[in-house]
Amino acid sequence: MQVITKRRTIRSFVSKPIEEKALRKCLEAGHWAPSACNRQLWEFVVVDDPQIIRKLESITQQPTPHAIYIAIFYDLTKELPGSRLGGVQSAAIAAQNLMLVAHSLGYGTKMIAGLNSPESIGRLLKAPKGVEVISLIAFGHPAQIPSPPSRGPLHEIVHRNRFHIDKMRYPNHLDAYLWDEDEVVRLQSGVVRHGGHIGFFRSSVEEDLLHESLAPIRLESQWRALFLFPHSARYINPLEERFPQTKMELLCQSEDNGYYISSELKHSLPIHVGGFTQSGLTASSYDALLLLDSGIHLPRLDKTLAEIYRLLKAEGVLYISMPSSKSPLLLKLWRERLAVSLTRTPYWRVGPIHPLNPKEMSKMLAEAGFKIGEKYFVSVERDEPQTIMGKLKLAVIKLLRRMNPAYHDLMLFKAFKAK
Q1: What angle separates helix 20-31 from helix 84-104, to the nearest 10 degrees?
Q2: Which is nearest to 412 in space by CA: 382, 373, 380, 381?
Q3: Could you give the CA distance from residue 59 to residue 115 in angstroms, rounded to a whole number?
Q4: Is residue 159 part of a domain?
Q5: Three-class SS state of 167
Q6: Secondary structure letter of residue 75 according to DSSP
Q7: For strand 286-292 and strand 312-322, is the pairing parallel, antiparallel, or unpaired?
Q8: Cα–Cα separations (whole angstroms), residue 258 to 155, 162, 263
Q9: 289 and 207, same structural domain?
Q10: Which of 28, 59, 145, 231 is the most buried (most CB within 10 A)?
């Protein structure tokens, strides 16, 4: 069991020659995997040419310095009618065999699953017609072996004769208030391991909006500031550049999220893992806390605000931002997601959400013991429509925003811990 439980996905390798004998053993292990009807429909391509590796990594968008690659292909020309799934399963077992033996020999591997352009990889590696890439494995000497992520209790996923649960583990609804904290953390961990993060902002236009929303934030030198539950470093890197003397730290809900964030940071920052309950942060120890965008995904924002109040020093400042409840961007997203069952749409790209309007936000902050200093509202600048209906719609949106700030795309509140 140890070779299974101690094998880890390696994302950082060191420059060191790979022994041909060890590589051959790993390939033999893959070749000895069981296969449907013993068809052995796999083909292995070892990629160690630096020029081809660079092109391969430009396709996968997952560069892995100091590693070579093993591409496992599946030969469709030899498959039996209706047996494709069996062949894919066989290739997956071959990949597992290869990775386990690599670990036993002191090597590290990273399987790049969900290839975004298998056809491009096939063309690059000159694959004949009818041969399709199934998986791509980075192979080399590990720089470090990370600690294993936790596994849930076995009894939760083992069933006898029939399922003992009547619904699966994620609520089939966008509303974050119908989730609990563990469900959100599990979703976030799965998204991170898929290579992304949950968050509201996606397009380049929305990125501009996000950076505009950071403009009012002010952090003093020598302050101790804590970013709460960031889903990416897109909020952190710009502020760290603006306020290099501020002592910045991060609080993440899971190790997976912390690992992902650390890979995006321009500079190493202290990262606390486990949320409020497991990280053991000291009360009244921070000058500023920042909950930027991620508050929209929390099932209990009131509980979070109580913890923020506990961690802030007297007169400490809180910056909290989220899309407003009547944001046209958010309403469009909500309609699209609710139109389709969440089990059949990539809702995880946004995650569960529970937006507030400015009045609700003000009330919640006051009830948690904060006094509001300033409020900021920003929106996506849309191109002037060409149609009469489009122009009318834009004019209505602009009028609504003048009448009610809840129609802005994003709101940022600056609040202080009341004495």
Answers
A1: 150
A2: 373
A3: 9
A4: no
A5: coil
A6: E
A7: parallel
A8: 28, 37, 9
A9: yes
A10: 231
- Helix (H) or strand (E) holding 358, with range, is helix 358-367
The CATH number that applies at residue 218 is 3.40.50.150
φ, ψ (nearest 5 deg) of residue 133? -75, 135
| pTM to 2 decimal places | 0.70
One DSSP character per residue, 315-327 reads EEEEEEEE--TT-
The residue to which tokens 């925003």 are assigned: 401
Q: How many domains does the chain fold into?
A: 2
One pLDDT digit (tens) per residue for the chain, 419 residues: 888 888 888 888 999 999 999 999 999 999 999 988 888 888 999 999 999 999 999 898 888 899 999 999 988 887 777 666 777 788 889 999 999 999 999 999 999 876 778 899 999 999 999 888 988 999 999 998 877 777 778 888 889 888 887 766 777 777 888 888 888 888 887 777 666 677 665 554 566 777 788 999 999 999 999 999 988 888 899 999 999 999 999 999 888 888 888 888 888 999 999 888 888 899 899 999 999 988 888 998 999 999 999 999 998 999 999 888 888 777 776 666 655 555 554 455 677 888 899 999 999 999 999 999 999 998 776 666 677 776 777 677 777 777 788 888 889 999 999 86
Residue 23 belongs to a domain with what CATH number?
3.40.109.10
Give the 3-state secondary structure of residue 138: strand
Do 378 and 249 lie in a common domain?
yes
- List Cβ neighbours of 347 (8 Å cut-off, separation of 6 or more): 174, 337
> Cα–Cα distances in Å, from 91 out to 71, 85, 97?
11, 10, 10
Domain range for 16 is 2-142
β-sheet bridge partners, residue 139: 68, 109
In the numeric block, the tokens 């439980």 are attached to: 5
- DSSP states along 78-107: GPPTT-HHHHHHHHHHHHHHHHHHHHHTT-
What does each C-alpha distance from 203 to 207, 329, 418 come to in angstroms? 6, 11, 37
